[in-house]
Amino acid sequence: MRTRIVLADDHAQMRQALRALLERQADLQVVAEAEDGLQALHQVQALRPDSVIMDVMIPRLAGLEATRQLVTAHPTVKVIALPLHADRCLVEGMLRAGAVGYLLKEHAFDELVRAMRTVLTGQCYLSPHLPGMPS
Fold this sequence. Notes:
The protein is an alpha/beta fold. The protein has one domain: Rossmann fold, CATH 3.40.50. It contains 5 helices and 6 strands. A 6-stranded parallel β-sheet has the order 2-1-3-4-5-6, with helices on both faces. Strand 5, helix 5 (108-120) and strand 6 (125-126) form a beta-alpha-beta unit.
């Protein structure tokens, strides 16, 4: 069975690149893309994916609040935060909101598949590239 994923990022090129990366894996399938937090919530409600890759600074409903609402409504969905910056407060906020993975966009192509596989086994994934955070 394939893992169903929603990509939530306001940059179309980033979504396309992430889709191409993930769909090279036989067991991963991107079922939808969202360009803002509200659209991500609607996609999750309609499609019931296994995971969401969430840009943190996304329009209409920021990634932190979108993650909080998403995990409250759909507690089995695994959210991986994918921001541009490694801000400790943001990392901690996303984890408190319910994200189970956190890696920087600049390392997405090296780490995203590993992060996805880690969170799907019930573990938390924190990028080793996050300064001052345990890996």
